[in-house]
Queue: 2 jobs
Job 1
Amino acid sequence: MVDISIDFGGTNIKIGLVHFGCVKAKTIIPAFADKGLIPRLSDVEKAIHQLLIDSGLMPCDCTGIGIALPGIIDPAAKTVLSINGKYADAVGFSFQEWANRIFSLDAVVENDARSALLGEIGYGAARGESNAVLIIFGTGIGTAAMINGQIVRGRHGQAGILGGHLVANVHGNRCTCGNVGCMEAQSSHWALPQLVKRHPQFLDSSLSNEIGIDYRSVIEALKAVDQVALEILEELLLYWSAGIINLIHAYDPEVVILSGGLMKSADVLLPQIVDRVHALAWTPWGKVRFVVAEDPDTSVLLGLSYLVQLSKT
Amino acid sequence: MVDISIDFGGTNIKIGLVHFGCVKAKTIIPAFADKGLIPRLSDVEKAIHQLLIDSGLMPCDCTGIGIALPGIIDPAAKTVLSINGKYADAVGFSFQEWANRIFSLDAVVENDARSALLGEIGYGAARGESNAVLIIFGTGIGTAAMINGQIVRGRHGQAGILGGHLVANVHGNRCTCGNVGCMEAQSSHWALPQLVKRHPQFLDSSLSNEIGIDYRSVIEALKAVDQVALEILEELLLYWSAGIINLIHAYDPEVVILSGGLMKSADVLLPQIVDRVHALAWTPWGKVRFVVAEDPDTSVLLGLSYLVQLSKT
């Protein structure tokens, strides 16, 4: 059986048909997340119908629909409890009612990073691990944790997923969550344009010619030995490493899973992150291993499929 | 039955006879922790014998000995796995063999903050709570967490207890643990003298006349409206609040328990900490409650007694 997985990201909505840990078909539509969730649903529905048609399938051939968002989720009620800076109208929306009305299928709803962790442990780069943290560099920075085979959820579903909102600099920037100096406010994709534009030599940098400054543009500028890009990347690496150390100190994992679009540049970034974390983390038992999602675009889709299967057993 | 509890702190060793959540007798001897554990054991033994004599008890009247240290503990082996900047020779020391040889009693060994959390939940200010974090301001800053009634331990016993070593400023000071910018390196009792002496107006402050600068001296100077003390306290409050927010974001508790010597000034500090945390923490379900240990000196002793009792059931 096939599952439908929908990853409502900050920049794109990724939709996949997943079969036993393998993404059989996938499509991506823009998120326009600042305009809300509900205005995007008709395009999501069209995209799913098209994927099914292209694959010669009907909704009734599917086990269920897995839905991930970058917010705090109530998995039992299948609703979003809180989300920051995007899809504001998703709070309280009944995904179950929607899935049932449009596709006659049950829905499973989960935080995106937690889905990605399950995807990588169930089917991906961290298969079979029991003590792991995941950090997914998307528009924001999502995290999730597993201790002794159990996903860390906490009393109100918040534990493990707010690693991007641990304070990494008390004198830092205001975050969209309301807090100050969150790792996400200091080093995420959404925070990057402001970080770059505030650099005193910004106008001397090739980055000043970019229309949209993103991780990719910084890494490209780096190849051209752009001093501003070098300094910005140094600062980002400082925050990413501190953020990973914080997850290690908080959850005591054996493996750190890295995912999200940024990991397309893992060849450049990973060795530097690993060196810094190994040098600074307090892990007297040994060294945490690092794995990168085999396909950083599909971690969430795989995890949703895992959850849909689990909901049917 | 009475238990013997020993809290090997960074500044003092606190020893108590505890009976059903009540410290019946207590004594304090200096730690000299930088000189190691083993050189202090004969004084600890003498102090315990004296406490027992004063209480009209013999070792055989006791259930067991609970021992807490500010390090990473293997509770099954009853040994210290790692400890930073104090009691260096405690690593690998067999507390069980010692307790058995000297007192013919079994030992229980636990991290000090985890013991304090159990003490406050079992017998103290947070009785009956199931989702809590504790932060104990001693010489260093210890933390512990409980999720859904289970103490957070992690794969190697490190989870929950390294909250003082979450990075709160990536551009901060080197910590004794080897990491940079830990909350403990920025705002603990041991870090304080350096923080104060680095202040540009230090020599104009009444603090420059103090022989040993500690939390108490900053709070005293504050009462005399000392500008340096005001600024230092503002900075400390920033870090303490961020550290508590990080624990809330990491473990999703309903209650934050504050303990340790600093809480003798809870009347001055607590309202400011609570206001900052409530303003900045992302807790859409409601507001975390704060409780202060009824007797901040005895949280650890009570928790050790709880663990000794548990070990005998």
Job 2
Amino acid sequence: MSPTAVEGCVFCAIVAGETPADLVVDDDDFVAFLDQRPVFKGHVLLVPRPHVVTLPDLPAELRDGFLAHAQRLATAVVEGLGAQGSFVAVNNTVSQSVPHLHLHVVPRTRGDGLRGFFWPRTKYADGERAAYAAKLRAALG
Amino acid sequence: MSPTAVEGCVFCAIVAGETPADLVVDDDDFVAFLDQRPVFKGHVLLVPRPHVVTLPDLPAELRDGFLAHAQRLATAVVEGLGAQGSFVAVNNTVSQSVPHLHLHVVPRTRGDGLRGFFWPRTKYADGERAAYAAKLRAALG
């Protein structure tokens, strides 16, 4: 087990090789494997080997490799599976099924029945946009 | 205009300052601004200044900065807006409304009515998982 492995974490168990998975990436820093219940077949989860919970927790030295793998996986679902595009996403805390950072790469095809944001959009009231932007700028420091 | 700016690209126009936007990040390589039609208020789009279409097209030298900004924005929607988490996503080609790479950072709150994957999941038939994994490994080289 890695020194950062968390007892009971299902992704730490895959990282450690204790739970079998259909691995598609397996290197010093990351593993990627098929989601057991894919949105579409070929749906992959990219996971850093160290146990970190959310995207902001990913150590700086792993950022480049994490995004490089995301790029390669997004290309692979197109070239390897005949998808026309991909959906790449991370849920942080809310809707995060496993509290070990995982990036979804889902193959997409036009007419597959999903929508880009499948969700109702809302609108800002007058002046509200500026207030939200100011709060975010303040939080960004 | 940047040397890579594409005529008629609405995000290149924001990058160039020709179209106003509620900017929350504005540096040498990236801008981030409020989505005009947010899933939830405070929904931000992070865009590289050079015109690239999809995530795999992002130049390697911008990967670390892109993900660092994504981390900072995911933290900012929690710290600045009181969200409990975030949804961070890129649509590549399919469902991609503007063909200039943009990463969505959406504030999330438990009970906000969205679901992690709001989509039906499918299942692999016997042996099918191994076949999909093999195709992806081959495409990854």
